[in-house]
Amino acid sequence: MKQEKISENRVFVLLLIVIACLTLFIYSRNSPFYFTNNWVDSNAYLTMGRGILHGLVPYKDLFEQKGPVLYFIHALASLTGDNFYGVFIIECLLMSFNLILFFKIGKLFLSESGAFFATLFLPLLLLSSTWFETGDSAEEFAIPCLLFLIYSVLADKHSMSVNFYSQGVLVGLLFWIKYTLIGAWIALFLFLAVQFIFKREFSKLFRLCLFELLGFLTVTVPVLAYFLFNHVLQSLYNVYFKINMGSYGSGNLSFTARIGRALSTGADFIKQNCLIYLVLLIGVLLFVVLTWHKLSKRNVFLFFLCFLATSALQLYAGVGLPYYQYVALPYFALGIIGFVLGLVYLTSKNVSKPVLVLFSVLGIVMPFALNQNPQFSRYFPNNSDGGKNSAQTEFAHIIDKVPHSTLLNYGMLDSGFYLASHRLPTVRYFELQKIPYANYPENGDAQNRAVNDEKVDFVVTTFDVNQEKSQEQSRWTVPVPKALITKYKIVAQHSQTRDSSHYTYYLYEKKELMSKG
């Protein structure tokens, strides 16, 4: 009987891995089902990763704002070539962990078949275009970490020494991916520390500090060693901490103003998706009510404390991008278990095998309801995002005609032209970050110097010299470099959509090259 149960569990786990890979193949724009991922953030991460493989050092040689571990991961992903297939493989691993961990959480309160049934609805939630967008956000890496933390809390394993070390490793990973993702672990550490102090359990407090620190250092030491070896620790500090904290988002606002903006951003998120959040909240409350007799009240409090800390730190920067909501989903996902518990309570029956088979298929199909990405797949080669005839592909053909030519993505975030043309940046400021010019003028000024000094052969931008302002430069007041008018000429232009907005891209070529040709 026990062997039969183990075998059934393995079948469920295997099915969840298959579902994870199939759903991502259909809904993630990093998969081979798509021509490319045109999201600017993903392209910037991959440019950084490709740069690392070719000896370029983050922050020193290439200016970008996320953490180094995110770029190391994308360096690994770049081993598949100049495409997003490596990112897709990593996403499949992450989603597999997500489903398996959620299945483990479900098994704390449901039968195996019931837990599997609940897990089939998780892709519907995680892959919604509302927050998933194209895939490959930094927040995606936090989901399995948060699910592991939630499992540890609900299974009452968060006070074990081995768990202290594991959580420390996760903190290290997320801290060096995007440090605003570690709110839950700050709450967990403080909660346990206060608890051990009040109970005078100083040996446990010592183990908490020791093993959490060891776990954090397991990730941090190699990261710092890399930058120390390359003599750029100062660059790491200046960009990842100083500029992010002082120039990006609400960097120039007071503490109270930041809190106000964070609350306003959170309220906006709820208003925009009020129906989804209302349904999930009802499910979470149902989960708490139906498991109240099983759960430690202390752990219920800790669960909600971690949720508040996660949300607060994520929103503290004052930036209201839709995918920032992604880190709240592991908490709201318990609403799925709540509804399944309610179904079992009302029917007094376990989920039958025919129902499991049906919903295994629906688990792959259901995200269609909330994910819009398939309309931009290879199945629709002439879609509005460019498809097989995108600006990136058209411009790459022109750039490739000039051997060893250089390129600058000017006045906008990385729009995929480096990747399409198989080029690496030769200018540190290879894109224009979302930092107001007044907060950090060096980014815009350095791009202008590169153009004025004719350091690049080609310039791609959304700026037309015959217009007054770039489509993406309303926040950027620095004058357009004269050389873009006098020493470069538009050789191609292409209009397409990105993120539901219309853009016209212009490719400028150095006139000197044209005369040689």
TrEMBL record:
Q: Give the EC class as a word.
A: transferase
Mind listing the GO molecular function terms for this protein? Answer: glycosyltransferase activity
Q: Membrane spanning segments where?
A: 12-28, 84-103, 115-132, 173-198, 205-229, 275-293, 300-317, 323-347, 354-370
UniProt entry keywords in alphabetical sequence: Cell membrane, Glycosyltransferase, Membrane, Transferase, Transmembrane, Transmembrane helix
Top-level taxon of the source organism: Bacteria
Q: How does it sit in the membrane?
A: Multi-pass membrane protein
Give the Glycosyltransferase RgtA/B/C/D-like domain ranges.
70-226
- Where does this one sit in the cell? Cell membrane
The cross-references to PROSITE patterns, in alphabetical order and at most eight, read: PROKAR_LIPOPROTEIN
Enzyme Commission code: 2.4.-.-
Q: Which Pfam families match?
A: PMT_2
Q: What is this protein called?
A: Glycosyltransferase family 39 protein
